[in-house]
Amino acid sequence: MQVLQQQFQVPFSYQVIFTKHLFDSSNKTLCDFISNFGQSNFRKRILFVIDKGVADAHPSLTTSIIDYFESNAIADLAPEILVLPGGEVCKNDPRFYEEVVRAIDEHRIDRHSFVAAIGGGAFLDMSGYAAAISHRGVKLIRIPTTVLSQNDSGVGVKNGVNYLGKKNFLGTFAPAVAVFNDVAFLATLEDRDWRSGIAEAIKVALIKDLAFFEWLEANVEAMNSRDEAAMVEQIYRCADLHMKHISGGDPFELGSARPLDFGHWAAHKLEYLTDFKIRHGEAVAIGIALDCVYSHLIGAISLADCERILAVIKGLGFDLYHPALAENDCQNLHKGLQEFQEHLGGHLTITLLKALGKGEEVHEMDFPTIQASVALLAKHA
Amino acid sequence: MQVLQQQFQVPFSYQVIFTKHLFDSSNKTLCDFISNFGQSNFRKRILFVIDKGVADAHPSLTTSIIDYFESNAIADLAPEILVLPGGEVCKNDPRFYEEVVRAIDEHRIDRHSFVAAIGGGAFLDMSGYAAAISHRGVKLIRIPTTVLSQNDSGVGVKNGVNYLGKKNFLGTFAPAVAVFNDVAFLATLEDRDWRSGIAEAIKVALIKDLAFFEWLEANVEAMNSRDEAAMVEQIYRCADLHMKHISGGDPFELGSARPLDFGHWAAHKLEYLTDFKIRHGEAVAIGIALDCVYSHLIGAISLADCERILAVIKGLGFDLYHPALAENDCQNLHKGLQEFQEHLGGHLTITLLKALGKGEEVHEMDFPTIQASVALLAKHA
Ligand SMILES: NC(=O)c1ccc[n+]([C@@H]2O[C@H](COP(=O)([O-])OP(=O)(O)OC[C@H]3O[C@@H](n4cnc5c(N)ncnc54)[C@H](O)[C@@H]3O)[C@@H](O)[C@H]2O)c1
Ligand SMILES: NC(=O)c1ccc[n+]([C@@H]2O[C@H](COP(=O)([O-])OP(=O)(O)OC[C@H]3O[C@@H](n4cnc5c(N)ncnc54)[C@H](O)[C@@H]3O)[C@@H](O)[C@H]2O)c1
Ligand SMILES: [Zn+2]
Ligand SMILES: [Zn+2]
C-alpha cells in the first residue's frame, strides 16, 4: 500500500485595535492598517456592509466613511454601502448573506480586497460568513459595535448563519485580518445590550482570572453608570482572555478542544425555551448563576464565594433566574444538557468552578442537584 | 492606542492512501483509518454521498458499502446513501449542495463524524463544500474516482461550487481528513476522462520535475493502452508534486503565493469560449502547448524541447489546438489574459518554461507573440 503524507500549518495573525471615532478624518488607524497590509502591487478594493441598527443610531456614519476614503486614498471604496438589518433576523434569512455575496461579486472584491463589516455579533457572523465563502475567503475587517462583539464574538475566529431552524448550522472558521473596537459605537446601545455582553466577562473571569473578577466586582457601579473608560478596560481584558484561549488551544476546533462555554449549556437551552426573547448575555448570566450554585452544592466552592458571584451578576442588573428553567420539573432544562452532550459528539464536558478564577471540567451532572440549584435560584426571582 | 495581537498556526495533516477495491470486505484500509481517527470516546457516524456517474458504472457499490460497515463495526453508517449527479451540473445548481447539507443535518453528522464523498473532481468540490460549511466543517473523507481528482483536485485543499455564473465563486479551503485513491474506479472512465487528467501530470512535470516528464514520455504507450500500473505511478508522482507544492507554499493562499497553474490562463478562457464542452484537462493540454510554444518563441526553451513536449501531448491523444484560440484575431484569448490578471488582484504572474522541468514566473506576455504561438499551433490542428 502506497501512502502520501500531507502535513502543513497555516499561520494566522491579526490585531484587535482599540480606538475611538474610527472614521474621523484625523484618525489614521484604519488608514495605516490598509496601507501596510499585503503587497503594494495589488489593487485594493473595500466594500462596507453595515448593521441597520448601527446606521440608524449613527446617521452620519456612511457619509463619514465616504469622506474618510476621499481624504485618504488607501483603497477603492465600493460605490455601494450596504445597510442590512442587524440582530438575529439577519442570520435567519439566507437572503441577507446572499445579498452580501452579490455585492462582493458586483464590486469585484477579490482575495486581495476587503469586506469591512460594522455591526453587532449577529451581523458580523452573517457578513463574515458571506466574506468567507466568496472566492474561498476575501479579507474581512471586523468593526464590532456591541459589547458582546467587542469582547468576545468579534475578536474570535467564527462566523455563521442559522439554517434548517438550527443556530449557526452553516458557518466556517475564518479569522478577520483586523478588528477595530471603536468605543464610540457603544454609546448608542440600549441598556440591555450594554449590560448583556458583560456576562461574557464574568464567565471568563470566573474560570480563568480571579484578579479580573475582583476588578469586575469593584466596577459594578461604573458599568451601571455607563462609564466609558471602565467599559473599555472590561472589553480589553475580556477580549484578551478569549484570544489567548483561542491561540493557546485548538483555534479551529479540529480535535476535542472546546470553546469557552462556562454557563453556556443552560444558556443555549434558555434561549430556545424563551424563543430568543432574552439576549444571549442575559441567558449566559443565568447559566453562570446556575452552574455556580451547582458548583457550591457539590462542594466545589464555598457559599461565600457563590454569594459573591451572584451579587456581581445581580448588581449589574441581570436576572439570576428565569421561570423556563423550572418548567416541566426541570425536564426541559435537562434535555438541554443531553442536547449539549449530543452537540459535543456524545462525550459530555461541562466547565464548573473549583474556585473563584478557576474552572474545572466534569463529565457528568447530577439531575437532582440541578433541580436543587434551580430551586435555590428561584428564590432570587 | 491599545492593541491586542493574535497569532496562531492551525496544523493540518492527512494521508492519501493508494488502494484497490476499497470496499472489499478483506480490505482494511478504510476500517483502520476510521478506527484510529480521533478520540475513542466520541461516537462516529458516517454519511456516504456518491457521484451518479460512478454509481451507475459500479452498480454494486452501495451494497458493498453497506456490507463493509456491517462486517466492520467502526462507525454508524447513515441509513441513506445519497446519489447525486456528477460533473459540472452538480456545481451549477445549488440544490445539490443543499441536498448534502440536508442529509448531514438529518443523519446528525457532527464535527466528530464523517462525510465520505465518492466521485469525480466536480462532485468532490460540491460535496466538500457542503461538508465544510456544515457545523463549521464536518470531517471529510475524499474518494476520488477520476484521474484528475486522484492526481490533482482530490488531494488538494479546495472545494467550491459555481454561483452567479462564475466558476468556483463559492468555496472554502478545507483539507480532507483522508483521501483514498482506489484505482479500480478508473476502469470505468471514458477514454476522454482517463486521458484528460494526465494533462495535470504533464503540467507539473514540466515546471518541476524533468525525470517525471521523461517518465511520461516513456509511458505514452502504456497510458494509451490503459495500463493500470502505469496510471497508478503517474497519479502517485503527480499527486506527490501537487501536495509538496501546497505544503511548501501558502496552502490557503492567504498571501500572494499561487497555485500550480502553468498552462491554465488560456485553459480557463478556452473552457468558457467552448461553453465547457471540452474537458478541463483537454483545455489544459492546449494551454500547456500554447505556453510552451510561447516560451520557445521568446527564446526561453529550444525548438527541440518544445517539439518533445508537443509530441508527448499529441502522443497521449490530446488536441494541441482549438479554433476558439484564434477567434476574433486572438482578441478573445487576450481578454482571458486580462481576466486572469484581474483574478490575481491586478498583478499578473504567469508561469512559463525556462527548461524542461523548470518553470519561470513572468509578469507580462506579449500579444503579437501570443498570436504567433496560436498560428504555429494551428498547423497542428
Ligand atoms: N462568532 C462567535 O464566536 C459568536 C460568539 C458569541 C455570540 N455570537 C453571536 O452574536 C450574536 C449576538 O450578538 P450581539 O450581542 O452583539 O447582538 P446583536 O448583533 O444581535 O445586536 C443586537 C441589536 O443591537 C443593534 N446594534 C448593534 N450595535 C449597535 C449600536 N452600536 N448602537 C445601537 N444599536 C446597535 C443591532 O442592530 C441589533 O438590533 C448572536 O447571533 C450570537 O450567536 C457569535
Ligand atoms: N478543488 C480543486 O482544487 C480542483 C482542481 C482542479 C479541478 N477541479 C474541478 O474538478 C472538476 C473536474 O473534475 P473531473 O475531471 O474529475 O471530472 P468530473 O468530476 O466533471 O467528472 C466527469 C464525468 O465522469 C463521471 N465519473 C466520475 N468518476 C467516474 C468513474 N470512475 N467511472 C465512470 N464515470 C465517472 C462523472 O459522473 C462525470 O459525469 C471541475 O469542476 C474542476 O473545477 C477542482
Ligand atoms: Zn457566549
Ligand atoms: Zn487544472
TrEMBL record, chains A, B:
Record-annotated 3-dehydroquinate synthase C-terminal domain positions: 197-323
The EC number(s) this enzyme carries: 4.2.3.4
Molecular-function GO terms, alphabetical: 3-dehydroquinate synthase activity
Pfam family, one: DHQS_C
Domain 3-dehydroquinate synthase N-terminal: 82-195
Enzyme class: lyase
Protein known as: 3-dehydroquinate synthase
Record keywords, A-Z: Amino-acid biosynthesis, Aromatic amino acid biosynthesis, Lyase, NAD
Needed cofactors: NAD(+)
The keyword Metal-binding is annotated on this UniProt entry: no
The keyword Oxidoreductase is annotated on this UniProt entry: no
